[in-house]
Design a protein that fits this description.
This protein is α+β, with helices and mostly antiparallel strands. Helices cover about 25% and strands about 30% of the residues. It has a domain of about 55 residues. The strands form 2 sheets. A 4-stranded mixed sheet has the order 1-2-3-4. A two-stranded antiparallel ribbon has the order 5-6.
């Protein structure tokens, strides 16, 4: 089943409603502050609920430290600042 754009699989329970699943999704996303990709709801041997889940991949943005300031991309820089960045000596990491 798919609830709130999350792929959900329920194992060991009958009659679990979308509303109940939606509450589990809301609970996990509020605790982790990340969007869910998948959710597995399983019954444990002692009749408790086990929640297993995976998160959606987050967009990664490169942050640079230039002259003491943290900046993201250089796409909003003017031509002079871009040229200055281009002329800098780049240091690599060796193993």
């Amino acid at each position: 089943m798919r609830v709130n754009d999350v792929e959900v699989k329920v194992i060991g329970f009958d009659g679990v409603t979308e509303k109940e699943v939606s509450h589990y999704i809301d609970y996990i996303e509020n605790e982790t502050h990340e969007p869910l990709k998948t959710l597995f709801i399983e019954r444990t041997a002692d009749n408790k609920v086990a929640l297993k889940y995976s998160m959606k991949k987050q967009k990664f943005e490169r942050i640079r430290r230039i002259t003491g300031y943290l900046v993201g991309t250089i796409d909003r820089w003017n031509n002079a600042k871009r040229e200055e960045e281009h002329e800098r000596v780049k240091h690599g990491v060796s193993k």
